[in-house]
Amino acid sequence: MRPCPTFLLVLLRWVRLRMCARRWRYSNGNNSRLPLCVRQRWAYLKLMVNSLYYNSLTNSDVIMDSLMEPIFWMVDLLTRWFGSVFVCLVVILTSSILLIAYVGLLPLILNTYSPPWIVWHIGYGHWNLFMIVFHYYKATKTAPGYPPTVKNDIPFVSVCKKCIIPKPARTHHCGICNTCILKMDHHCPWLNNCVGHFNQRYFFCFCLSMTLGCVYCSISGRNLFLDAYSAIERFKHMDLDKSGVPVTGMGQLIGILPPGQSTYQTPPPPYTFRDKMFHKSIIYMWVLTSTVAVALGGLTIWHAVLISRGETSIERHINNKEAERMAKHGKVYKNPFNYGRLNNWKVFFGVEKRSHWLTRVLLPSGHAPYGNGLTWDIYPIRKDMIPV
Ligand SMILES: [Zn+2]
Ligand SMILES: [Zn+2]
């Protein structure tokens, strides 16, 4: 009995379909031999694991940030703990320089300098000191500004994922303060405070006046430093040239001094203890002030550049990325908070008339900055300020 051709055709097609289906299942890693309930649970488990980290915005930056998160957390924690230590360090080091200036240098200036130079040193030195103390105190004690936590109608650009509150423009979260900061620039460990909308001027003026003070000490103390350094060097050589004492000083330690010279007569010391302390203090002052002048001077110049551009330190990175992104599309990014170099400085210092350059810039002033740090419509206040 011959099989029906139609039956054979259907059988062949069925076998082929089964093989294709099996191949497809294996190629997709789906093992149909497992019971349905096991496969369902496996699929549910996979979905649950994926849901823990899946994000449509996930990229290499997010993954790197997540991996670095423990390190950031540790740095934030240490910075928070050592905040008071850094502030004490600033106070102690500044006080030590003041002590040297008042006890060591001031009598010297009064006894040896001409009257015009005495007036200059006393006048400038005290103005600079007052600027440093005033701005440091205000920078540490003034709150940088925080966004409201209650419901409001203030426009916002995003939501802080840590505070779970709306973030107005220029607001960023500080991991060390653990709160959002208005117009945040950075967290300064030397102030143990964030630099934000309400204390940025104090911070910058402190940096500037401290740099000027260090440059002043460094320049005016240069000759004294050279004298003190050569005096200390001379004193060292005198010590080493004493007769009967080996150059390395080991003779005194192991008792091989020549006979009859164990109690040799030493010449009277050329410098008293007071002289030596004075020389060492001058060297300490010059080295410290010169180092701070270079380091803090660089920071001050960097912040001056940022202020000229109408940016904060954080916005500098954001704006650079935005400029690169827009350049790929053939567009030019414009910072909406840049009103032109001179106007940026006027906004920063709160200069509204010419006399303010004296009363608000050259002299200590406690006036509040423009705006509330929540909205940035400065144009109604200053009609001539148009973003460039
Ligand atoms: Zn926040
Ligand atoms: Zn902070």
From TrEMBL:
<dbReference type="GO" id="GO:0016020">
    <property type="term" value="C:membrane"/>
</dbReference>
<keyword id="KW-0808">Transferase</keyword>
<keyword id="KW-0472">Membrane</keyword>
<feature type="transmembrane region" description="Helical">
    <location>
        <begin position="283"/>
        <end position="305"/>
    </location>
</feature>
<feature type="transmembrane region" description="Helical">
    <location>
        <begin position="81"/>
        <end position="105"/>
    </location>
</feature>
<dbReference type="InterPro" id="IPR001594">
    <property type="entry name" value="Palmitoyltrfase_DHHC"/>
</dbReference>
<feature type="domain" description="Palmitoyltransferase DHHC">
    <location>
        <begin position="158"/>
        <end position="317"/>
    </location>
</feature>
<dbReference type="InterPro" id="IPR039859">
    <property type="entry name" value="PFA4/ZDH16/20/ERF2-like"/>
</dbReference>
<feature type="signal peptide">
    <location>
        <begin position="1"/>
        <end position="20"/>
    </location>
</feature>
<keyword id="KW-1133">Transmembrane helix</keyword>
<keyword id="KW-0012">Acyltransferase</keyword>
<dbReference type="Pfam" id="PF01529">
    <property type="entry name" value="DHHC"/>
</dbReference>
<keyword id="KW-0812">Transmembrane</keyword>
<comment type="similarity">
    <text>Belongs to the DHHC palmitoyltransferase family.</text>
</comment>
<keyword id="KW-0732">Signal</keyword>
<feature type="transmembrane region" description="Helical">
    <location>
        <begin position="117"/>
        <end position="137"/>
    </location>
</feature>
<dbReference type="GO" id="GO:0019706">
    <property type="term" value="F:protein-cysteine S-palmitoyltransferase activity"/>
</dbReference>
<protein>
    <recommendedName>
        <fullName>Palmitoyltransferase</fullName>
        <ecNumber>2.3.1.225</ecNumber>
    </recommendedName>
</protein>
